[in-house]
Specification:
about 5% helix; mainly beta; about 25% strand; single chain
Amino acid sequence: MFADGDHRRRPALRGYEVLTREHVVAIGGLAEQRWFGRCAVLHDVTGRPDEIYFWG
């Protein structure tokens, strides 16, 4: 988190994007091979963690 407490300003290319349900299609390619699994914490519209999403 930044000093001002705003975690939403972090650059996405470093893996700090606040993911929501709308990102699920975009992250699907991160587990292209069957033996690789992934999980991501999905957030609600206010930026609070809402669910853990598993795929792969």
